[in-house]
Amino acid sequence: MPHANENHLLSSVKNALRILRSFSLDEPEKTVTELASSLNLSKSTVSRLLHTLASEGFVTKDPETQKYRLGLTILQLNTVLTSHLEVNREAQPILQRLVGDLQETAHIAVLDGPSVVYIHRVESQQPVQALSHIGRRNPLHCTSSGKILLSYQEEKTIEAYIEQGLERFTLNTITDPQVLRETLQTIRRQGYAISIEELREGVASVAAPIRDYTGNVVYAISIIGPVHRLHPYDPSIITKVKRAANEISEKLGYWPRSS
Prior knowledge:
Blueprint: H1 2-22, H2 32-39, H3 43-55, E1 59-61, E2 68-70, H4 72-84, H5 86-102, E3 105-112, E4 115-122, E5 137-139, H6 144-151, H7 155-163, H8 177-190, E6 193-196, E7 203-211, E8 217-226, H9 235-251
Antiparallel strand pairs: 1-2, 3-4, 3-8, 4-5, 6-7, 7-8
Helix pairs in contact: 1-3, 2-3, 5-9, 6-8
């Protein structure tokens, strides 16, 4: 029965992808039992899929703990993806200059559902840095890049995000829906966003929007660092971040209309 076999294959592929997506920064390692329980699959099914994934390098198994983690194949695929993103190629020299000027780490981020995902990064040479990495997912309402990207979405998208709840991470996290709405309006009007200890204590950032050739905001550029070093309300910092965003936008084909 070809049709039944095809459905079985599709189901296996889907479950294998669910296994890969279940690993996270909070849970980088999992046992067969933990995966089976969280995904509502039988342990035999999970074991079979993990064996296949391991044979191709997508996961690896710790022989001592019997726990699985993502393998190097994932890293290789990520390298291929990020190296061929046009924005990364065009932004690289601009980010390097920004990092050189401000001596803090810079990122390019994109919206992905209810999260902001960092797709490119240029590190500063400072001995103490704010922790971040490519592929990291953060909430939208408590990061400068997230607020930038959310502020340019349609109202229904903003309201849908608010309806899912605004989780508190620090004393500075915006948890009031009306405050967030007003903040997003201000961000859109001024063209930049600031976050001071809203997601993690001791960390500050400034972000600005990057547009593509259609004029739509598709990425955000941000500079991030410890609050004792990075002062987000410094006009010179804001100007440099916005200028970098505009330069990358032009590289992507965006030209603002002359008034």
